[in-house]
Amino acid sequence: MKPALQFRLSQSLALTPQLQQAIRLLQLSRLELELELNTALESNPLLDMETGEEVENEEPESTPEELEAASEAQKEAAEADGDDQPLDLELDRSEYRGTALDEDGMEPQDAEVQDLRDHLLWQLNLTPMTGRDRAIAATIIEAVDDDGYLSESDEAIISALSSLYVVTPEEIQSVRHRVQHFDPVGVASRTLRECLTVQLEALSEDTPGLTLARVLVDEHLEALARQDRSRLCQRLHVDQTQLDIALTLIRTLAPKPGSGYADTAAEYVAPDAYARKLNGRWQVALAPGCQPRLGINEHYAGLIAKARREDANYLKGQLQEARWLIKSLKTRAETMLKVASSIVRAQEAFLEFGAEAMRPLVLKDVAEEVGMHESTISRVTTRKFLHTPRGTFEFKYFFSSGVTTVDGGAASATAIQAMIKKLIDEERATRPLSDQVLAAELNRRGINVARRTVAKYREALNIPSSNDRSRLG
């Protein structure tokens, strides 16, 4: 083929630095925005916390339409480059902490979170033991899972200690028995039966129902799960009252002794917007920190005309960047307010009546109402929080798919989950509702949902199956 020149006309949107900055700021959480602005204030002498009037902007402000088009163009460019990662960075949920200073003028620090193993090792350090037994106990503690159970075999523990000591299974069992009586009692057990037995051993001998409870746990744990009360009474030659006393005692035990010890720090969320009902109407306002009052430093701006050419060019560049940042912050705040207001209008029933009244809502619905692209709405709703009289929720909480109803309408997945949770909360302890029964009840209420869908929603709520919920009431 001969080389030849070809002309082709095409339209494309140039992503100016200003538009790129506006898109990036839009997806930042409140804490990330604060860090971004602190960095900008330190590096740009033309930026200052607003104390006077802002210098008149020479550049036209980025309209929502420009931001919208740029956002979509950026997304398409990433896809064209083969980048499978979405533009919305999936970061760990941010922690929002207060910045109030203590009496010494220092920012207060959160106490280090103590997990189960830390709690057990602390007790180990206070327990008199030989160096050999202490090494065995520490190895056992490190092998305990988050529920408090020891799944490692004696052989694995022996192997882990082989570089220090040659230990026997009998020594491991002896030390493990001591660890089991640390707080929480029953930790480092290998089975549920052993865990409950250790907890019963720690009780006073005059505890009502203790003797019968020990027999039930040791010999009839499977029968307890089957809720066979009559047969239990016959086998053990006790009446219903005696059985009830023993069962009440068993219910006070912890089947997962380690579950009460969190291994993550508490997270503090500062709302980005507030929804309040005033004069019978729901209104939305942004939190004060969502639109920081930045301005132009008039002193340095006034030096531009007097400075030498090199210094003047530097100051002009910094002035341009400062203007762009201020405009981008304004665009970000306006976009967030539009999206938050649209969400509140769509979910007024939730605000009035709770999760069971949540209506189906997807990104496209809000995008069409505010005149933006779904990718923009996705950025705005990520790691942004709305405070309501019912609590503080991430914007994304208000979005869920719909399930058809018999009258041709739709019920949101969130509302259905709330109904399932309410039904399970109200079920009889001795007869937990199966997924099929839950589906039938929802169908009776006009919601077309299959058993497998109920199971999916139940699992999303971290609610065990009916078999696992079986318990004597």
Notable features of this structure?
473 residues; alpha+beta; Arc Repressor Mutant, subunit A; 7% strand; extended
Protein described:
Helix 5 crosses helix 7, helix 9 packs across helix 12 and helix 19 crosses helix 20. A four-stranded mixed β-sheet has the order 3-2-5-6. Strands 1-4 form a two-stranded antiparallel ribbon. The protein starts with 16 loop residues before the first helix and ends with a helix. The longest helix is centred in the C-terminal third of the chain and has 38 residues. It has 473 residues and is an alpha+beta fold. It is built from 21 helices and eight strands. 49% of the residues lie in helices and 7% in strands. Strand 7 and strand 8 form a beta hairpin. Among the domains are: 136 residues, no CATH class; 68 residues, Arc Repressor Mutant, subunit A.
Across the major sheet, the strand order is: 3-2-5-6
- Mean pLDDT comes to 79
Order of helices and strands: HHEHHHHHHHHHHEEEHHHHHEEEEHHHH
Straight-line distance between termini: 86 Å
Helix content: 40-55%
Which structural class do the helices and strands define? alpha+beta
Give the tally of β-strands: 8
Biggest sheet record: 4 strands, mixed
Low-confidence parts lasting 5 or more residues at pLDDT below 50? 51-63, 76-111
Q: What's the number of helices? A: 21
* Mass-distribution shape: extended
Radius of gyration: 31 Å
Could you tell me the strand content as a percent range?
5-15%
